[in-house]
Structure formats: structure tokens, C-alpha cells
Design goal:
The complex is a heterodimer.
Chain A lengths: L3 E4 L2 E4 H23 L4 H26 L1 H6 L14 H18 L4 H26 L13 E3 L2 E3 L2 H20 L7 H17 L15 H35 L2
Antiparallel strand pairs in A: 1-2, 3-4
Helix pairs in contact in A: 1-2, 1-5, 2-4, 5-6, 5-7, 6-7, 7-8
Chain B lengths: L5 H21 L27 E3 L5 E3 L7 E7 L4 H17 L4 E7 L6 H10 L6 E3 L4 H5 L7 E5 L5 E6 L5 H12 L4
Parallel strand pairs in B: 3-4, 4-5
Antiparallel strand pairs in B: 1-2, 3-6, 6-7
Classes of the chains: A mainly alpha, B alpha/beta.
């Protein structure tokens, strides 16, 4: 694990660096994919950037709202660089809403735009895994295997490496799928479905799972819900695209 | 293509979801192994029991971490030459004064092995600190807490479990207050 990269007097937090690189590479790939899909790459980049910025600001404000009296007494703390004072769920929701509003105002077609963002999601999966590997978070369950790693006073599954392999696999499958002419929006949902599947499978090897009803691992339960939604939406969007194609053919060849 | 053939798609969907549900069920945590923070090995990270220590204090005498169990404990590792440590220490002092009666204990552990006792004493006097200052003369606590950067702050709940780790600083009083507030409200 490499939580800190010491460059002279400068101590760089490697997990944060991995996430930053992930955002940068992800946005670059999204731009490239937007061009391939004949969308305005600048608009797609701005949409993703707007979502990210709104998400971070929203996450901080939502966190501050929980402790209103404390932040009211010391409002400058809103600008703290500490990532521990963010509310991730609320931030994600606010970021999604901001990106959606931006897309609507700039008349970006929903489904191709989502497809353009799909590689960014896959890259972020790799970046998160790399961040976990650097920090030692998302650690594995105790296990004595030839490939176990010694971490936090025990031999464990190298869950961060599994996560990294899973995320690279998702990116590879996205790459293979984009070569095929799938209806708009399908690639995006496929990336989410694959990521959810990887999470359901790999969570079993984690040693820090949040437990829910019946001793089930919460991430797996959420993964199943997300996977179900993805599979349903993929079918519905594919049916709609097929119906539109048939209608268009009828108009062209009555 | 799979997606275009409804029958094949719904079969595929059913197989995938059933496999996922089965795996989720099979990999649930057995009752006997359900992770309970207190049962884990002591380790300096969130969710683990805080590694214990006994250190001399700047004012004389010894302090042991376990003697504060039942309180919320903030362990701050610092050094007198560290700028961010100097910047955040007044906030920690204020936090200590404001919450001491509610069950907060602060242990400001000076990394004496990479500092010196006289400088630490001057630091405390200059900032008018009244919080307990401990001296890590041989670096054993810094080592056990895997010190990566100064300052580092560990917030420990009433049961002795680390609930937040803040590496680096300076951290404001408000940020620290948001971290200890839910812990102070937990039953002793």
C-alpha cells in the first residue's frame, strides 16, 4: 500500500491522486467517444464537469446541513479540503441533477450522451480500485492463500487487486461492445450492469462489508437492485429503438 | 443478438439475477463471524479497536489509553516544528474546553522521537494549552499508529473503536466537532 508519495517536502496523497487521474483520463475518453458518436465533445465534457463540481459542492453543503449550527458558527470550514466532510450520496444525487439540467438546456440527446459517458464510468472504476489499493481501504477478508497479502495485522484476500482486475475487465468489455452497433444508451447501462455484477461477486471477499438484514452484505444487495434496473432498462430501450427503426422503415418503404 | 430475442433475454436475466441472489445468500456473514468492532485486532484505522499505549505526560506521570474507555477520545499526533500542527492545535484546545464535560478526552501525543521535549514544552506554553500532552519518546505510538504525516488525528468512540482518521491538517474546530458530535451522543 502506498498512501503517501513523498516528493522532497511535498507529501502527496496517492489515493486522491489516483482519483484525479481517473477523472482526467475518464473525461478525455468521454470526449473522444462523444466525437465518435457525433456529439459535441465540448458540451459532453462540460456536462460531466458540471456534474462533478455540483456533486462536490452539493456533498459539502449537504454535510454542513447535518451540522448547521456548527458550520453557522464557523462558515469558513465549508472550504476545508478534508474529504471526510462530504455527504457522498447527497452529492451524487445533486451532481446527477445538475448534469441532467445541463444536458437538457444544451439539448444533448440523452441516450448517446450516456453512451459517451460510459468509458468515463469504467475508468473511474479503475481509479477507485487504484485508490483503494494505495490506501489499504476496501480490504479483504482474512484468508491464508498463496496470493494473500499481509495487511492490517492479518493475511487477507487482495480485494483491491480483485477490484482492479474487475474494473479493467469492465473497461475491456465496454471496448468490445462499442465495436458492435448497439442501440443508443445500451453501452452505458451495460457498463453499470457489469460494474454491479463485479461488485456482487467481489464483495464476498471483502473484510469490511457493511452488513444489512439477515447478515447480507449491503453492497451485494444494492448491486442486485442496480443490476435488475439495468437489465430492465436495457430491454426497454432496445425495444423502443427497434420500434422506432421499424416505424422509420415503414415510412421510407410503405 | 441476445437483446433482440425476448425469450433469450428474459432467460438470461433470470439466470443472472438468480446467480447473483444465490451468491449473495451464500456469501452472507455467518452469525458467529459477524464483524463486531471490538472483536477485531487493534489497528489504526476506522472500524478497528484503537491500539493501546501508555505514555509519560509533559506534566509528569503516565497516561494509558484504556483508562479513558467510556469517553470519546481524540488522539492527535503532532510535533512542534510542524506548521499545520501549530495551526490546528488552538482548535483542538477549544474543542477540548467546549466538550470536556460531555465526555471528550484529548490526548495530544508529541512525536518526541522526531522533536524534543523543550520545544514541545515551549509550544504548549506559547499556545496556552491545557489539554493533556503525551511524549512519544521512542516513537512506539507513532509506529503503532502507522504515522504517515503530521498532524494525524484519530477519533475513538466510547467503546474504544476508531471512528475517524484524519491524516494531515490543519483541521478546523467545526470539522472536528462534526466528527465527535455523533459519538458524544452515543450511550456510554
Amino acid at each position: 500500500m502506498f498512501p503517501i508519495l513523498q516528493l522532497g517536502p511535498l507529501a502527496i496523497q496517492v489515493p486522491g491522486l489516483a482519483l484525479l487521474i481517473g477523472v482526467w483520463v475518464g473525461l478525455a475518453l468521454a470526449e473522444k467517444e462523444a466525437t465518435r458518436l457525433k456529439l459535441n465533445p465540448d458540451a459532453v465534457y462540460s456536462l460531466a464537469f458540471t456534474g462533478l463540481v455540483a456533486g462536490v459542492i452539493g456533498a459539502r453543503l449537504a454535510y454542513a446541513a447535518r451540522y448547521l449550527s456548527i458550520y453557522a458558527a464557523e462558515p469558513l470550514s465549508l472550504f476545508s479540503l478534508n474529504p471526510a466532510t462530504l455527504a457522498p450520496t447527497e452529492g451524487m444525487l445533486i451532481g446527477l441533477i445538475a448534469a441532467f439540467v445541463y444536458g437538457q438546456r444544451n439539448k444533448l440527446p440523452l441516450r448517446p450522451t450516456l453512451d459517451a459517458l460510459a468509458p468515463a464510468l469504467a475508468i473511474m472504476g479503475i481509479a477507485v480500485a487504484a485508490a483503494h489499493f494505495a490506501s489499504g481501504d476496501a480490504f479483504g477478508a482474512s484468508a491464508r492463500l498463496p496470493w494473500s497479502i499481509y495487511l492490517w495485522d492479518d493475511y487477507r484476500h487482495p480485494s483491491q487487486v480483485y477490484e482492479l482486475i474487475g474494473a479493467v475487465g469492465v473497461l475491456g468489455l465496454w471496448w468490445a461492445m462499442k465495436q458492435r452497433r448497439l442501440p443508443p444508451g445500451i453501452n452505458f447501462w451495460a457498463v453499470i450492469a457489469l460494474s454491479a455484477s463485479a461488485r456482487i461477486f467481489l464483495e464476498a471477499f471483502r473484510g469490511d462489508s457493511l452488513i444489512t438484514v439477515g447478515n447480507l452484505r449491503a453492497a451485494q444487495a444494492w448491486g442486485l437492485i442496480v443490476l435488475t434496473i439495468c437489465l430492465l432498462v436495457m430491454k426497454a430501450w432496445n425495444q423502443k429503438a427497434a420500434a422506432s427503426a421499424t416505424a422509420l422503415e415503414d415510412v421510407q418503404h410503405p | 443478438m441476445l437483446l433482440q430475442d425476448s425469450r433469450r433475454w428474459w432467460t438470461f436475466t433470470a439466470i443472472i439475477l438468480l446467480s447473483g441472489a444465490s451468491w449473495t445468500w451464500l456469501s452472507r456473514i455467518p452469525d458467529s463471524a459477524a464483524p463486531n468492532g471490538a472483536d477485531r485486532i487493534a489497528s489504526p484505522r476506522e472500524g478497528f479497536p484503537a491500539p493501546g499505549f501508555t505514555l509519560p505526560t509533559l506534566s509528569g506521570g503516565l497516561t494509558t489509553l484504556t483508562e479513558h474507555q467510556g469517553k470519546v477520545v481524540l488522539v492527535n499526533l503532532w510535533a512542534s516544528w510542524c506548521g499545520p500542527c501549530r495551526a490546528e492545535m488552538p482548535a483542538i484546545q477549544k474543542l477540548y474546553e467546549a466538550n470536556r464535560e460531555r465526555g471528550l478526552e484529548v490526548l495530544a501525543v508529541n512525536s518526541t522521537f522526531q522533536d524534543n521535549e523543550d520545544d514541545a514544552r515551549s509550544f504548549v506554553q506559547n499556545l496556552n494549552l491545557t489539554l493533556p500532552v503525551l511524549l512519544d519518546k521512542d516513537g512506539s505510538v507513532s509506529h503503532r499508529y502507522l504515522l504517515r504525516a503530521l498532524p494525524s488525528t484519530f477519533i475513538i468512540d466510547r467503546k474504544g473503536i476508531i471512528r475517524a482518521v484524519i491524516v494531515g491538517g490543519p483541521v478546523s474546530e467545526a470539522v472536528l466537532q462534526t466528527k465527535i458530535e455523533p459519538l458524544l451522543n452515543e450511550a456510554p
